[in-house]
Amino acid sequence: MSFDVGGRLREIRLAAGLSQRELAGRSGVTHSLISLIEQNRNSPSVASLRKILDGIPMSMVNFFDEARTPRDKVFFEADDLIDLTSRLHQVNGGESRGRMSFRQVGDAKAHNLQILHEYYEPGADTGVAMLKHNSHEGGVILSGELEITVGDQIKVLSPGEAYLFDSRVPHRFRNIGTERCVVVSACTPPYL
To answer: What's the pTM value of the predicted model, to 2 decimals?
Structure first.
């Protein structure tokens, strides 16, 4: 199923009564980046889309307008996880290299805890602009390898290894390996 990232961003921006320049100023990104995304000529990184949505403000779950999960739901089938990111890469065609997918368990806001099942294909990168947000996060590598940068610390983690840090410290995730990396992570309060 196709998702029009550019059309959705334009719709939300206009509903908020913002020009492209106003949203760029609020988000700390260039006007041209917003223009290219809205024209579907640029597929934003997770970090870029998150910055833009902060200027509205809106979560990625709300951006993708998924059906809401009942707050009292306890158990989730694989198909119940909420896809937050895989549709960002449709602009670039069907190639899987560099793609990532973050799928959220349930209603993160209701529980003040975001649990993600993450896939990073070889070459996937959260973006050159380091992520930074008011949360704490951690995760466990299930398969593959993932390079994680937190401040001035860099480490490549393998299956069974884990991370835990204050998300206010600039950070980045990259799959520099040759196989898909699978991670289960948690973040509180929710970021995406």
So the answer is: 0.70
